[in-house]
Amino acid sequence: MAETKTRATAASVDDFIAAAEPPQRSEDAKIVDAMLRRVTGETPKMWGPTIVGYGQYHYRYDSGHEGDMCRLGFSPRKTQLVLYVLTGAEGEDALLAKLGKHSTGKSCLYIKKLADVDMGLLEEIARRSLACMKEKYPI
């Protein structure tokens, strides 16, 4: 069975965020980091080389594959911020409809600039996601 590549590492979150390009991405990443620290009460760790993660949970699929992953996270990529905060929690679609300029993937929220979104709604999405994750994966 394939081994999980994305694991918690000892790499510096602060150094990773400071090195994000362009410079505005680094500034936006600092704001997201502060928000997710507040929402989760967790000190972040690097998960693999590119994901800043908060908290941890253990998953096991029907196939037998299992592993650990961060409960919430983000990655300040060159073209956009990727937030790993979408769970399909009740009310999530309504909040996304009012959030501002963004796109979504399966569990990802893509934002080009934080100035394009309502930060209060973004924080509420993160809070609901965390609650959903804690319910689904209590440990």
Describe this structure in words.
This protein has 139 residues and is α+β, with helices and mostly antiparallel strands. The protein has a single domain, classed as Aspartate Aminotransferase, domain 1, CATH 3.90.1150. 36% of the residues lie in helices and 23% in strands. It has helices spanning 13-18, 23-40, 92-99, 119-136, and strands at 8-9, 45-47, 51-54, 57-60, 66-69, 72-76, 81-84, 103-104, 108-111. The strands form two sheets. The chain has a seven-stranded antiparallel β-sheet with strand order 1-2-3-6-7-9-8. Strands 4-5 form a two-stranded antiparallel ribbon. Helix 2 (23-40) crosses helix 4 (119-136) and helix 3 (92-99) runs antiparallel to helix 4 (119-136). The radius of gyration is 15 Å and the shape is globular. The model has no long low-confidence stretch (mean pLDDT 93).
Label this structure with key terms.
single chain, 139 residues, alpha+beta, Aspartate Aminotransferase, domain 1, 7-stranded antiparallel β-sheet, two-stranded antiparallel sheet, 36% helix, YdhG-like, DUF1801 domain-containing protein
Quick structural gist:
With 139 residues, the chain is α+β, with helices and mostly antiparallel strands. It has helices at 13-18, 23-40, 92-99, 119-136, and strands at 8-9, 45-47, 51-54, 57-60, 66-69, 72-76, 81-84, 103-104, 108-111.
Topology:
Elements: E1 8-9, H1 13-18, H2 23-40, E2 45-47, E3 51-54, E4 57-60, E5 66-69, E6 72-76, E7 81-84, H3 92-99, E8 103-104, E9 108-111, H4 119-136
Antiparallel strand pairs: 1-2, 2-3, 3-6, 4-5, 6-7, 7-9, 8-9
Helix pairs in contact: 2-4, 3-4
